[in-house]
Amino acid sequence: MNVPYELVTVAGKADESYPSTNGNRVRLRDFDVFLVRKGADIKITNIVSKTFTDNPFAAYSSIDVSRNGKTVRIINTQLAFVTVSIMEQINELLGGPLNTALPALLTGDLQFSPDSAEYARLLDDGFIDAWSQIRKNKGFTSSQTYDLLNVNSTLSRRDIYIFYRNKKDINIKSISRVGIDLSSRTRTGLWPSNHVGISSNIYIK
């Protein structure tokens, strides 16, 4: 298969197996990854992938992307309610890879809602919620039923985000959700995930 993307980095979180109801074992692997289009005219530096302090079940990746003399830092993560709070993980990001003068993007499944203290913490640090800047609807991203067989969508909360900082350097051209329509389901009637994804066209000025 000709895949037009290549792997930049992987932040590992989980690789476990569990017994199934029919006597087999099912392996669960959960990673955060950065992919880049093959042949893209960009330079990627300062690649970091690590788990959070005191939380081996949550990880993040950080990269600096440069083109035409301009550089932006991008962090991708999925936060987790294990051993330390979501706020502690947000503060670790703000004191670590997001502690930069570069224009910055934070993306991922952040496990909080727009009315939470964690959301407000990012806004206080100068971040802007890309969805709320472009879209007027609530933009729910979670969750379909765990067996993925529901016909009517059960999305009822938003926890997947693209945040950005330094508005003068970053222009969000468009943003949309993917995997929200019935046509997104497999031939056997499964949703592609219990969450939907977010796709955005972002320009560095």
UniProtKB/TrEMBL annotation:
Name of the protein in question: Uncharacterized protein
InterPro entries the UniProt entry points to: Endo/exonu/phosph_ase_sf
Lineage of the organism: Bacteria, Bacillati, Bacillota, Bacilli, Bacillales
Organism: Bacillus carboniphilus
